Amino acid sequence: MDAIVHQFPPYRKDEAHHSQDAHDDHGHEHHDPGFWAKYIFSTDHKTIGIQYGFTALCFMLFGFFLMLMMRWQIAHPGTPVPVIGPLLEKVLGQVAAKGVISPELYNSFGAMHGTIMVFLGIVPLAFAAFGNYVVPLMIGAVDMAFPRVNMASYQAYFLGGLVMFISFFIPGGAAQAGWTSYSPLATTIPTHGQLFWIIGMVLLISSSLLGAVNFIATIIQLRAPGMTWMRLPFFVWAQFVTAFLLLLAFPPLEAAAVMQLMDNVAHTSFFLPTGLAVGGQLANISGGGSPLLWQHLFWFLGHPEVYVLILPAMGIVCEILANNTRKPIWGYKSLVYSVLTIGFLSFIVWAHHMYLTGMGTKISTFFQATTMIISIPSVIILTCLFISLWGGSIRFNTPMLFALAFLPMFGIGGLTGLPLGFNVSDVHLHDTYYVIAHFHYVVAPGTIFGLFAGIYYWFPKMTGRKMNEFWGRVHFWCSLIFMNLVFMPMFAQGMAGMLRRMSDGGANYSAAVNARAGADVIGGLSDDIMSLHVWILWAAIALGIAQIPFIVNLFWSIKHGEKVGDNPWNSTTLEWQTPTPPPHGNFTHEITVYRGPYEYSVPGHATDFTPQNEPPIGSHAPQISTTVH
Amino acid sequence: MEIPYTVQPRPDTGIYNAKVGIWLFLASEVMLFGGLFSGYVLLRVGADQWPHGWLDVRFGTLNTIILALSAITTLLAWAACKVGHFGKFKFFHACTLLLALSFLSVKMYEYHDKWIHYEIKLADGTFADGHLVEKSADFDLAQKTGTVTLHGRIVKDETLLYDLRSQKNIELKEVTVNASDIVKMENYGPWHNTFLAIYFTLTGLHALHILGGSIVIGYLWGPGSKMWKKDPERFTNRIEVSGLFWHFVDLVWIFLFPVLYLT
Predict the structure, then answer these.
(1) Using 50, 70 and 90 to split pLDDT, how confident is the model at A225?
(2) Rounded to whole angstroms, how far apart are CA atoms B224 and A452?
(3) Which one, of B251, B216, B262, B228, lies nearest residue B97 by Cα?
(4) Residues of A in contact with B197 (CB under 8 A)
(5) What residues are paired with B118 via a beta bridge?
(6) What would the pLDDT profile of B121-154 be if each residue is shown by its tens digit?
(7) Closest CA of chain B from A568, distance in Å
(8) Do A216 and B24 touch (CB under 8 A)?
(9) What is the per-residue pLDDT across A92-147, written as a single tens digit (0 to 9) for each?
C-alpha cells in the first residue's frame, strides 16, 4: 500500500529536490535572481502570496492593538492606557495627553481599526494571499495569467497600506469618520486624515482591481487539461466569485471616493446638502448635494465586501473538511450554485444598512426581501458542510479544529443577522453593540478561524514542515474561548441599548439618564451592562495573549517543525501533487486531470484518496503500479 | 516557464489571456462610470433647479465627431496589422493620436471658458454674469477696492441664469462692477453648483482615460512597435486590446454628450 503512495505523483524525488536541474529541461530564462528580484519584485505567484500573507498578518496585529487601546478607553474612561500610554503621548502628542486616549483619537482608532481589518487585513489575506498561493496550484497552472500585473497589485496594496499607516502621524491624525466615512461628517472634520484615507483607498481599490482581473483570467484560461468547471475544488469557485465581487463592487466606491475627494479638495458639494451648518455657522458651500448618495455608493461596495470576507474562508473550510473527514463533500453542486447565487444577490441587498436613513419604507421592504432571500444560499452552504461531517472518520488536527469551529461561529454570526435584516427589529438594534457582535462573529471567529485553518493546512506546502500540533491546539482552544467571551456579551449590551462609537462606552449618557429617572427607565444602561466592558477588556487581552503561541509557532516551524513529505494530509487536490515547496513553474510534469476534487475513500482504490491527476486504472498515461505489495 | 495562451486563443474558451483581462477591466470601468452616472441621476432628481444650455453643443458635437473618427482609425490600424501592412498601421494610429490630442484641446478650451465665467451677487440683489474681461489694477475683493469688467449681463432673478436654452437672443455687453458692491463673486468651477461639480468630475475622469489611452497607443506606436518584427501576432493582439479600451472610452463619451450637453 505504501508503495503506491510513494510511486505517485510520477516525478522522481531527486528531481524535485534539485528543482534547478528540473528547470534546465525547460531551458527558459533560468538564472539565479538576486534578493530584490526574488523577494521584493517577484512575479512568482507563490512569493507574492507569501508577501501578501505576511503584510496582511502584520496589519491585522496592528489593527488588533488599536482595538485593545480602544477597549481600555471604553472600560476605564479617562484613565491612561497602561504600559503604552507614555509612548502614545510621545508619538501622537496632544491627542494622547498624559497617555489618555482623547475622543478624537478614539474616533481615529475606530475608523482605522475597521479600515485596516477589512481592507488591509482580511481581504488581502483571504483573497490575495491564499488565492495567489493556492489557486494556480489547484487548477494546475504554471503561474497567474499576468505575473507582472500580479506584482503591481501587491505594490499598490503595499503603498495603500503605507499611506494609511503614515496618516496616524500627520498633524490631526488619521481619519476620524468611521470606516464607512459618511459625509458630510467626513468632509467637515478639519484635519487631513480623511484625505489620506481616500488616497489610500484609491490605491487599495486599484490593487484589488488588478488582482481580481488576474484571478478570473487565470481561472478561465489556465486550468490544466481535464480540469473542467465542475472538477474545480470549491475553494477555487469561492475565489472566482469573490474576484467578481471585487471587480464589480469596488468601482462605485472608487467613484464615491473621487467625489469625496472633490468635496475635500475642489470644494464641490456632492455629498453636502443645502443649509449645512458646521460649528453653528452656515457652511460656505454651493449645497444641493446628497448625503444619502455616499451611503448608497459606499454600501454598494460594503455589502458585497461582506461576502468577499466570508467566501474565501468558506472555501478553505470546505477543502479542510473534505480532507479530514476522508469522504467527498456532500452536495458539491449545491455549494457551487449557492456561491454563484450569493455572488449575484449580494449586489442587491446593500440598503439594509440604511433602514434608518429615511430612504422610504417601500425601498426598505424591497431590501428586506432580498436580504432574507440571500440567507437561503448561505444556509445551504453551511448545511452542506455540516452534512459532510456525517459518517466521516474525522481527523482532529489543528486545521480541522479551526475549520470545525468555523461552522457554529459563522452560524451564530449569520443567524443574529436576521433581526438586523428585518427593518422593524432593526429600528431597535441599529448602531448598537448588537451590530458589532453580529458582524464580528461573522468575520472574527468566522473568517479569521477559516484563515487560521488555511495557514495550518497549507503551511507544509510552503515550507515542507508542519506547524507544531500541541501549540496549535493551545492556540485554537484559547482563541475559541476568548473570542466568544469578547463578543457574546456585546449582544446583551446592544439589546440593552448601548450605542456604538461612544468613546466612554456610554458612561456619560448612562449616568445622565439614570440620574434623571432611575436605573430602570428605558434608555439608561444598568451597572451590570456597563460592567461587561471590563470583562470584555480582559477577554480581549487574553485573546491577544492567545495569539503568541501562533506567532512563535509560525516562525519556529519554518526551521524546526516536523519534516513532512509532499502530501502530508493525503489530499486529492493538485497543489499537493507537486514538490514542496513548488518550484518556479509549479509542476515538474504535465498535469492532466481525470476526476473531481474530493475522491476520498473510493471503494476498490488502494488508498483512501485518489488524486485528481492520477490516471484511471488501465490508461496508458504515466505508468503507475496499482498492485498492492 | 511559459504561460500558455498569451498569443494563441485557448481552444475551449476561444480567447487569449489579455482579451479576457481587458474585457474584465472594462466591466469594472462600466461600474466606475456607472457609479458616477447614478450620482448624476440622484443629484439631478434632488436638485431645486438644474442648469440647461450651459455647455456649448457645437463643441460637444465637434468632440463627438473627433472621437467617432478616432474609433474608425483605431479599427483600421488593427485591421492593417491583421493583413500585415505595418506602414498603414503607423499612419492610422498617428491619426488616432492626433485626434486624441484635438479632443483634449477642445476640452481644455471648454474648461477655460468655464474658468473665466463669473457670477457676481451684487448688494442691490441683482446678479452680474459673464466672462471676465479685466480686473482693474487695484481690484481687491477683501479691501473692496477697484472694479471688475465682465462680458455678459445683469439679471434681477438668479433663476434666469439657470435656463439659458429657453431664453432667445440674450444680449451680452460689457458690464463693470465696483468691488464695493460685490456680495459674492464666484467663477463657474466645480464648486459653483452640483451640475458643474458632476460635469468637471465626469469629463475630467473621461479626459484622464483619453490621456491614459493615448499614452498606451503612443507607446505601441513608438517604442513598443519594435515587437512587430519579432512577434507580429502578439503585437496585433496588443493593438486589439488597446483598441478595445479606446472604443470603451469613446462609448463613455457617447453617453456623456447627451447627458451633459443635450439635456
Answers:
(1) very high
(2) 45
(3) B216
(4) 262, 266, 268-270, 286, 289
(5) B130, B187
(6) 999 999 999 999 999 999 999 999 999 999 999 9
(7) 27
(8) yes
(9) 988 999 999 999 999 999 999 999 999 999 999 999 999 999 999 999 999 999 99
Q: Which of A159, A150, A163, A156 is nearest to A49 (CA)?
A: A150
Closest CA relative to residue B39, chosen from A298, A293, A184:
A293
CB pairs under 8 A between A and B: 145
Which of A220, A230, A294, A591 has the highest number of chain B CBs within 10 A, making it the mutation to test binding with B? Answer: A220
In this prediction, residue B64 has a pLDDT band, given cuts at 50, 70 and 90, of very high
d(CA A187, CA A192): 10
The C-alpha cell of A301 is what?
A: 461596495
ipTM of the complex: 0.95
pLDDT of amino acid A522: 56
Task: Tell me the domain boundaries of chain A.
Answer: 1-32+565-629, 40-218
Name chain B contacts of A222, Cβ cutoff 8 Å: 3-5, 17
pLDDT of residue A508: 84
Segment A50-69 mean pLDDT = 97
Q: What is the DSSP letter of A46?
A: H
**Closest chain B residue to A28, measured at CA:** B1
Q: Which of B201, B203, B205, B208 to mutate to test the interface with A (most CBs of A within 10 A)?
A: B201
The closest alpha carbon to A298, from B158, B202, B39, belongs to B39
Q: Which residues of B touch A304 (CB under 8 A)?
A: none
Provide the CB-side half-sphere exposure for A550 (13 A, CA): 23
3-class DSSP assignment, residue A599: coil
Q: Which of A245, A286, A296, A300 has the most B C-beta neighbours within 10 Å, making it the best mutation to test the interface with B?
A: A286
Burial class (CB in 10 A: 0-12, 13-18, 19+), A25: exposed
Domains of chain B: 19-114+193-262 (1.20.120.80), 117-187 (2.30.30)
Digit-coded pLDDT (tens) for B87-109? 999 999 999 999 999 999 999 99
First to last CA, chain A: 6
Q: Model confidence at A3, in pLDDT bands (50, 70, 90)?
A: very low
φ, ψ of residue A34 to 5 degrees: the values are -75, 180
pTM exceeding the 0.90 threshold for the entire prediction: yes
Q: CA–CA separation, A421 vs A410, rounded Å?
A: 16
Across the strands, what pairs with B117?
B131
Angstrom distances, CA of residue A131 to CA of A46, A219, A316 = 10, 11, 10
User: Cis peptide before A312, with omega less than 30 degrees from 0?
Assistant: no
> What pLDDT score was predicted for residue A31?
60
Band of pLDDT at residue A7, cut at 50, 70 and 90? very low
Eight-class DSSP state of B187: E
d(CA A593, CA A137) in angstroms, rounded, equals 13
Instruction: Give the tens place of pLDDT for each residue, A345-354.
Output: 999 999 999 9
CA-to-CA dists, residue A34 to A113, A144, A257, angstroms: 36, 22, 39
Identify the burial level of B107 via C-beta atoms within 10 angstroms of its C-beta, where 0-12 means exposed, 13-18 middle and 19 or more buried: middle
Of A252, A266, A268, the CB nearest to B31: A252
